[in-house]
């Protein structure tokens, strides 16, 4: 048994090392391993990297830093999986070393814990499978073995997953860089963005792709995978991914009458009662088949390859976009099908009056997503006014996506509501949070103890900080919870304790890099950078700097929170506790710690640095801050302020 | 009290038997009359289903406790003693005629409930009976041939919960004859011959479509009261287009019959659709027909369902397990290798097909100059993910081309791949289909996809070779579309178009294909609208009123345009003035409309509106109990009160 275990652990470590090798010099000596498995993995990795490299080229330094952080998080996540399985003692040796620094004393436990938070941020997909199987099977050793094999395979698979580094532009001209996994939906990516940007999480937020060649813009639907459309972009593309609020994204669900009763006069549309709206939705989206708005109008169409725009009478049907040819009736049988929606998407266009001599600027096109340039295979349409255009584009989306669109909307609403409630919770929690509960498992405890002293500069609470940072950096969801089956709260906590030591170290390394690429792994980044915090990336990181811990926590909470809303029952329990703690911690610390945005590390180690940086960040914009909770306490006020700042940038 | 003679005819004794005279007094109750009558007949038989029918008044005397006086029966009354349940020839949505017993004495609503219970159709409130269209030339041979199905021997059971036996309600399992009836009910019938479709009545205009509504029976009166006689023909149809709680598990017959009704509505152009939609409907019909043929009688039974689901889960499991080995397998993923001819149409060039060594792996085709070059760099590699695949096939001409539209940043690249024979074609075509969806040859659906393509090709072969002689396997594609397209396209032209649509549905199971068909049908803009010819109050012009499940639609007869729609949820109230036969409706905002019905009776309009409102009150929880009283309140009119 032991031998096998050992072999597996070796193998897994080996893989991890390989993974990391791209990011950092491989420090640890390669271990002997079964030849067969590693090979494929290596291949996969290299493939993945070429992709990455391509995109890396165009990135700025700060982006790179962020990317690195993501990568590391990834890696650690993988480790974590492994680690959870095995005994601390065994795993410790190989793991700890990797990226970590002196603090590695903590050894395995520390590293393991660290990884946990990271995992959460990682793509959900990977961890879930394992956790599920583990808890149930833990009892039987045999099964453990089987699980390990699975784990190994899982890792191989994971390595195969395509990841893209995506730079997302935000309305104010700043940008965020994310690593997006091919399994992630736009919804999940947006959850990350919410967390990173601290905007209000209302349902109108939307990830759009813009194509300057065609002057088009399309909001991705929440259920789409982001990587797929992006990977069809050409190498030299000027296309962008933009994160913004688009009112028309879900307007049809707020005001279905505008689309389904568009023929009625404006006034009766405005007077629509909520109850009637609900009924409209029920009728059109909840039946056996969804009903597409019965749009019909004269639109202009640019014919294949021609320059002129011709008027045609168009009708929208569930099966496609039709027009009635000259001299024929509107009867269904006489209609000519312009396009069916299976293989095309609908895009808004800008300034087609100039570009294509369109009659108006209210144009939309239908094209295969892979077409990136002008082509005869694109269908160009032009409407008289904006309302009509929105009507048609939305109608086509309904025809194309059907019920899914409604599901997306409902999920978005839940999500938005969840965030709001969460904010409230945090505040309340803050009061009680003062005592960071180190309830976690034994491992966690280990990690905790040492760190606590260290971290706690001022308030003991700060210990909790460390964990949040990691989460901040890495985007996605919090799958980690599953890993720690027993006590829901534990998941959150455990990470923090251990995190401080190990994670801090790691985190520190990463955060700094963003600013100064050269300082790739200086443990105490703050020190190095303190005086002149490079302001370039302000957009990205500045926020973190200014409002020390609290903000970071908030975001963290936000992170973990998002997931819960969708599936409240499963994921919720764990996250809340975590956030609360942080929040509480945040409350206490505010004064002393202006820990950097990155992970926890900053708080403890670099208060001073944070202070300096503070100035730049705050100036940013002033906007939304719905999350601001109602608490009367000082804490809540602080919180509000923090959130405000956050949201501004 | 003075005794007087009451004349009663006993129907069972034959038309020539003289009526009985029984001496009664006015305070004798109906039960007493029946007792006396039965005694006089001297016949030992079960009279329990019999009741008295008052001919002049056209009404039943069903309340045995009422006295003759209370019923208003006097000496001049001619009563008939007759069974309440009589055989009826029922035209089903699938076109078959079924002879069965129905209740002639209760309201049509309840009669339909009874019929549906026998046929095992849930939610009978959605169906009703109507008089058939008069057939122009009634041929005698046709009459005899349609009396295939007979359920008259099946007793009407009162219980609503029926035991299943052999996958069908127990009362169908009695004999092979009744089993055949159940099969007819629960399995969709083969496509009709194109000539048969062409012969049937098709509404040519909205006006024609209004005529059907003159034929609905009144739900609140009995069959006898509406002049329906024993052995008369009636149609059973889904009347209200809201299908509650459709569950393939319990609704085998209901689903099949609904599909049949929808199919006929499309074939006969009762509902308009576009050409693209027609092709898809055609493809689905073909697919459903094929699956129904191969479907065994048993397959709808419970045990089979379990088995099926077990197989499904097993499949899922294996696929799931497969995942772990996937990665390793991928290194030796199956591929296709062959010499194929490739043609890339380009502007200004007329180059023909050129032969290349082609290799299909994962989702890409790579082609090489020759087999020997296969280890070098390919001439080109085509990634088919996201591409459009269209067949360009003529079995007669031995042409097996695959047309690929491969998206690229600059547009779509058009490429033709020509295969040598059917086998090669079906393999490569299936691979292309899967690849366009991002699936590889590893996918479990590959083999079935290949098979589907082969069967469809064989169908085309039969068509072109011997159009007259149809075997079970082959179907004339003309029987899948409405007669309009018979004129527009020859079968040869039609087949490729249906084939194209077929590719997108070929993987559906029988039930999901039927559901898909119904879904597309329900998504048609004109779905569920019943048309009535009306005249608005004060207007001298005929107009058409469409009644749907949620709204009324005013349609201009001349142009066929929708003039106005009113939604039920804005409706305050509606009344019928039975004297002048006018329907008046009030909507929110003081909108009042009033109209009279030109063709159909205004009771039918009233029933439609009330019926839809009744149906909208159904909810999932109470789906088992039918609130008949409410139905009559909403649809009955003055007679209900």
From TrEMBL, chain A:
Residues 19-39, 82-143, 427-634 are annotated as: Disordered. It is found in: Cell membrane; Cytoplasm, Cytoskeleton. CDD domains: PH_APBB1IP, RA_MRL_RIAM. Residues 162-249 form the Ras-associating domain. Residues 292-401 form the PH domain. One of its GO terms (biological process) is signal transduction. Keywords: Cell membrane, Cytoplasm, Cytoskeleton, Membrane. It is a peripheral membrane protein. Belongs to the MRL family. This is Amyloid beta A4 precursor protein-binding family B member 1-interacting protein. It comes from Phoxinus phoxinus.
TrEMBL record, chain B:
GO terms for molecular function: integrin binding. Transmembrane segments: none annotated. GO terms for cellular component: cell-substrate junction. Residues 341-437 form the PH domain. One of its GO terms (biological process) is regulation of cell-cell adhesion mediated by integrin. SMART domains: B41, PH. It comes from the Eukaryota. It holds the Pfam family FERM_M. Keywords: Cell adhesion. Coiled coil: none annotated. PROSITE patterns: PH_DOMAIN (PS50003). Belongs to the kindlin family. This is PH domain-containing protein. It comes from Phoxinus phoxinus.
């Amino acid at each position: 048994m032991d031998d096998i275990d050992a072999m597996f652990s070796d193998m897994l470590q080996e893989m991890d090392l390989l993974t990391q090798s791209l990011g950092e010099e491989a420090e640890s000596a390669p271990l002997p391993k079964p030849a067969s498995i590693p090979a494929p993995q290596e291949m996969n990795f290299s493939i993945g990297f070429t992709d990455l490299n391509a995109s890396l080229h165009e990135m700025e330094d700060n982006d790179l830093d962020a990317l690195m952080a993501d990568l590391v998080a990834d890696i650690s996540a993988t480790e974590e999986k492994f680690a959870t399985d095995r005994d601390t003692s065994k795993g410790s040796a190989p793991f700890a070393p990797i990226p970590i620094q002196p603090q590695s004393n903590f050894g395995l436990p520390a590293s393991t814990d660290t990884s946990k938070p990271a995992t959460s941020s990682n793509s959900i997909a990977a961890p879930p499978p394992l956790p599920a199987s583990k808890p149930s099977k833990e009892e039987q050793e045999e099964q453990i073995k089987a699980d390990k094999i699975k784990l190994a395979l899982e890792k191989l698979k994971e390595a195969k997953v395509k990841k893209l580094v995506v730079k997302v532009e935000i309305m104010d001209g700043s940008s965020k860089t994310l690593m997006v996994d091919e399994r992630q939906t736009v919804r999940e990516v947006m959850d990350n963005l919410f967390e990173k940007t601290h905007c209000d999480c209302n349902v109108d937020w939307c990830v759009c792709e813009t194509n300057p060649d065609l002057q088009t813009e399309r909001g991705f639907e929440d259920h789409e995978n982001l990587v797929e459309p992006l990977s069809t972009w050409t190498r030299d593309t000027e296309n962008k991914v933009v994160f913004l609020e688009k009112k028309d994204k879900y307007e049809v669900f707020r005001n279905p009458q505008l689309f389904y009763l568009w023929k009625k006069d404006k006034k009766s549309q405005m007077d629509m009662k909520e109850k009637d709206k609900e009924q409209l939705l029920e009728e059109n989206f909840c039946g056996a088949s969804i009903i597409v708005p019965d749009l019909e109008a004269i639109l202009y169409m640019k014919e294949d390859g021609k320059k002129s725009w011709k008027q045609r009478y168009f009708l929208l049907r569930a099966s496609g976009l039709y027009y009635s040819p000259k001299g024929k009736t509107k009867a269904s049988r006489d209609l000519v099908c312009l396009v069916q929606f299976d293989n095309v998407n609908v895009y808004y266009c800008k300034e087609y009056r100039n570009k294509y001599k369109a009659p108006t600027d209210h144009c939309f096109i239908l094209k295969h997503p892979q077409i990136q340039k002008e082509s005869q295979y694109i269908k160009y349409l032009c409407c008289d006014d904006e309302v009509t255009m929105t009507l048609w584009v939305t109608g086509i989306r309904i025809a194309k996506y059907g019920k899914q669109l409604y599901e997306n909307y409902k999920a978005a609403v839940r999500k938005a509501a969840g965030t709001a409630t969460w904010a409230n919770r945090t505040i309340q929690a803050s009061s009680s949070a003062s005592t960071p509960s180190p309830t976690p498992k034994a491992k966690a405890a280990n990690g905790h103890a040492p760190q606590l002293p260290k971290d706690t500069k001022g308030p003991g609470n700060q210990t909790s900080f460390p964990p949040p940072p990691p989460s901040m950096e890495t985007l996605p969801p919090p799958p980690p919870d599953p890993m720690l089956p027993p006590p829901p709260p534990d998941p959150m906590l455990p990470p923090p304790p251990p995190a401080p030591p190990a994670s801090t170290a790691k985190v520190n390394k990463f955060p700094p890099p963003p600013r100064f690429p050269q300082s790739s792994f200086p443990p105490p980044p703050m020190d190095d950078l303190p005086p002149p915090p490079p302001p370039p990336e302000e957009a990205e990181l500045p926020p973190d700097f200014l409002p020390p811990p609290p903000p970071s926590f908030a975001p963290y909470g936000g992170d973990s929170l998002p997931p819960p809303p969708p599936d409240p029952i499963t994921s919720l329990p764990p996250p809340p506790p975590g956030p609360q703690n942080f929040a509480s911690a945040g409350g206490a610390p505010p004064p002393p710690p202006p820990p950097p945005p990155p992970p926890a590390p900053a708080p403890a180690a670099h208060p001073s640095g944070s202070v300096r940086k503070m100035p730049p960040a705050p100036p940013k914009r002033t906007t939304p801050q719905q999350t601001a909770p109602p608490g009367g306490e000082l804490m809540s006020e602080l919180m509000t302020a923090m959130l405000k700042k956050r949201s501004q940038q | 009290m003075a005794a007087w003679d009451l004349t009663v005819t006993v129907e069972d004794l034959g038309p020539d038997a003289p009526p009985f005279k029984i001496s009664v007094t006015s305070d004798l109750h109906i039960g007493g009359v029946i007792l006396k009558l039965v005694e006089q007949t001297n016949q030992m038989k079960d009279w329990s289903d019999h009741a008295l029918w008052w001919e002049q008044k056209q009404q039943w005397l069903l309340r045995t406790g009422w006295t003759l006086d209370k019923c208003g029966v006097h000496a001049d009354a001619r009563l008939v003693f007759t069974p309440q349940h009589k055989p009826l020839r029922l035209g089903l949505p699938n076109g078959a005629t079924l002879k069965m017993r129905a209740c002639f004495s209760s309201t049509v609503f309840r009669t339909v409930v009874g019929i549906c219970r026998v046929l095992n159709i849930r939610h009978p409130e959605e169906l009703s009976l109507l008089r058939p269209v008069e057939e122009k030339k009634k041929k005698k041979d046709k009459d005899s041939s349609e009396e295939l199905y007979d359920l008259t021997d099946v007793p009407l059971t009162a219980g609503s919960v029926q035991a299943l036996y052999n996958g069908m309600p127990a009362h169908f399992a009695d004999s092979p004859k009744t089993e055949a009836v159940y099969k007819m009910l629960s399995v969709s019938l083969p496509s009709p011959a194109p000539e048969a479709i062409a012969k049937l009545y098709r509404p040519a205009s909205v006006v024609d479509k209004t005529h059907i509504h003159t034929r609905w029976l009144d739900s609140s009166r009995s069959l006898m009261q509406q002049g329906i006689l024993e052995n008369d023909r009636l149609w059973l149809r889904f009347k209200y287009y809201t299908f509650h709680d459709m569950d393939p598990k319990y609704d085998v017959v209901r689903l099949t019959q609904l599909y049949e009704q929808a199919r006929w509505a499309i074939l006969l152009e009762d509902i308009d659709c576009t050409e693209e939609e027609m092709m898809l409907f055609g493809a689905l019909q073909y697919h459903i027909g094929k699956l129904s043929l191969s479907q065994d009688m048993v397959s709808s039974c419970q045990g089979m369902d379990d088995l099926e689901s077990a197989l499904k889960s097993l499949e899922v499991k294996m696929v799931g397990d497969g995942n772990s080995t996937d990665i390793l397998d991928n290194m030796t993923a199956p591929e296709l290798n062959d010499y194929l001819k490739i043609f890339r149409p380009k502007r200004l060039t007329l180059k023909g097909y050129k032969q290349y060594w082609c290799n299909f792996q994962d989702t890409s085709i790579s082609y090489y100059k020759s087999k020997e070059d296969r280890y070098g760099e390919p001439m080109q590699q085509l990634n088919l993910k996201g591409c459009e695949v269209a067949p360009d096939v003529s079995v007669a001409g031995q042409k097996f081309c695959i047309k690929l539209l491969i998206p690229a940043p600059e547009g779509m690249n058009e490429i033709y791949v020509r295969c040598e024979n059917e086998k090669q074609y079906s393999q490569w075509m299936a691979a292309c289909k899967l690849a366009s969806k991002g699936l590889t040859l590893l996918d479990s659906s590959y083999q079935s996809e290949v098979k589907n393509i082969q069967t469809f090709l064989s169908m085309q072969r039969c068509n072109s070779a011997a159009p007259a002689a149809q075997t079970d396997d082959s179907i004339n594609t003309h029987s899948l579309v409405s007669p309009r397209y018979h004129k527009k396209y020859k079968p040869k032209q039609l087949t490729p178009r249906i084939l194209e649509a077929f590719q997108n549905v070929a993987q559906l199971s029988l039930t999901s294909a039927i559901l898909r068909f119904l879904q597309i049908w329900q998504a048609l803009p004109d779905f569920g609208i019943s048309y009535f010819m009306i005249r608005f109050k004060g207007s001298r012009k005929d107009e058409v009123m469409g009644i749907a499940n949620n709204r009324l639609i005013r349609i201009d007869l001349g142009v066929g345009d929708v003039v106005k729609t009113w939604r039920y949820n804005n409706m305050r109230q509606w009344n019928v003035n039975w004297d002048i036969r006018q329907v008046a409706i009030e909507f929110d905002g003081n909108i009042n409309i009033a109209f009279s019905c030109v063709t159909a009776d205004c009771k039918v309009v009233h029933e439609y509106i009330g019926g839809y409102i009744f149906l909208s009150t159904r909810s999932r929880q109470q789906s088992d109990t039918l609130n008949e009283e409410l139905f009559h309140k909403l649809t009955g009119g003055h007679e209900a009160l």
